[in-house]
Amino acid sequence: MIKLERKPKPQILIDNQQAWTSNLLDAVSKYGSYSKIPKNEKEKLLVHYRHEQIKSVLFYSSLDKCAFCETKPSESGNIEVEHFNPKSRYPDSAFDWDNFLPACRKCNGSKDDHDSRNEPIVNPYDLDPEDVFSYKDIRITAKENEYKQMGDMTISVCSLNSVRLMKPRADILVSLHSFSAALEEAIEDYFEADTGVKRRNRKRKLGEALEAIDLLANPSEKFSGFCKSYLRGCAPYQQAKDIVEGAE
Ligand SMILES: [Zn+2]
What we know:
- The chain is mostly helical.
- The chain folds into 2 domains: about 10-120, DNA Binding (I), subunit A; about 165-245, no CATH class.
- Helix content is about 50%, strand content about 5%.
- The chain is built from 10 helices and 4 strands; from the N terminus they run H-H-H-H-E-E-H-E-E-H-H-H-H-H.
- The protein has helices at about 10-30, 40-45, 50-60, 75, 105-110, 150-155, 165-190, 195-215, 225-230, 235-245, and strands at about 80-85, 100-105, 135, 140.
- The strands form 2 sheets. It has a two-stranded antiparallel ribbon with strand order 1-2. A two-stranded antiparallel sheet has the order 3-4.
- The longest helix has 30 residues, at about 165-190.
- The radius of gyration is 23 Å and the shape is elongated.
- The structure holds zinc ion.
- Zinc ion binds near residues 66, 68, 69, 106 and 107.
């Protein structure tokens, strides 16, 4: 999970949010509850939140990844507009821009109608997940701080340690370990260079190797939060950065 920036509310929502919400709330009072609204009628009332203008802005803000698990549609099915506070419990927020998140089908299904208002989970638009989560090997864990309970709840509600997520993390970890070993060798070579020319060439190679690794932690890549966290604790990576940036 990584921090996301909320984009401005799309025009279609500015123009229609009030009418869409009051139509839905009228139906809730007409039938006595949200769950009692007949299926077809409910679908007609709700369809607007999946409007193309809403989806495009929302999905752009998460770089087309799931806001919770950071997978792309190729891994976990379509990204959907998910309600942070579920519309079944809070129909008055069914068309709130701030209540929308782009989520994959798996996270959306796992979260279901969890009551995020009473049992808070992390909303990556409002809170930096780096303050909440760290990784132990291929498992995401909640840090021991003020967000611990919220972090644990998020991991459990969105099933962030399910096999479908741990497997690709394991694959990435293998790549990261081998990148790290290659960096270590390149650093040794750099320090063994006996001429200025060799040293400059080896520094350039280190820079190229770093660029390749940094690509994995690019926010548009799947599991970029996991990669970033690994690199933060990776000594050869930090040392190579120091060399390339001229500190060594
Ligand atoms: Zn997901």
